[in-house]
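Worked problem 6 (solution included).
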Amino acid sequence: MKNSFIRFLLITSTLIFGVSINAQNWKTIKLKKQTFELHNVTGEVVKFQGKKVLKIERDLKALPFDENNLENTVDDRHYARLADLDDFENGTIEIKMYSQIQNPSPYAPAAGFIGLYYRIKEDDSEFESIYLRPKVGRIDNQMARNHAVQYFSYPDFKFQTLRDKFPAGSYEGSAPVMLNEWITMRLEINGETAEMFINDMKYSSFIVNKMLGKNKKGYVGLYVDIATTGYFKDLKVTKKTLKVKSEKSEKVEGI
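Solution. The predicted structure is:
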């Protein structure tokens, strides 16, 4: 009886006061038509360069970082999830993002890690990602530039595992990006493949020939990692249901 009364109070509070409640008690932020759940990140809507954008940073209290154990404490469940879109499988994700290194920085080698998560499982136990290291995008060193883009699949194939188990460059690449400037990233997801387009480039600058994730459908999220302040706007998601003779699409726009 007591538990039933508590549930009644929670439901009543939600209806009357508009309280945001979910199973994990994730904080939510709404910007225009889109609502985001903050998973192990801090976030707020701010005015940046004259426009309202979503600002997020990794929450090191919720999910600690250890520079002596990088493989296990990066490329993890720290992102802002687009709510009410839990069935993205194939299609296009486009975002405008701006990456800064925090000052002071909690991690000296930080490269401004910023990008997208997709096909995120409900409980965060599986997802895939393509993200950028803008700090090395235009550096005067080709080997460093070759690490400007990273694909990974959580939880089994993070960046170091991919470097150890696959030929060099299989899941990393270059892109003409930089810190402290707006970058438009567009991902084209189709079955096991993914292509990334940067800014107004006609052709993709990075291709994943075979994605490694087992979860084929899920949420979309905005990602930052250690020592990075990320600003995001103009998120657009177009889902595509691929058929033999026809293609059906549905667009979701927001920020």
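Discussion: Residues 2-17 form the longest helix (16 residues).
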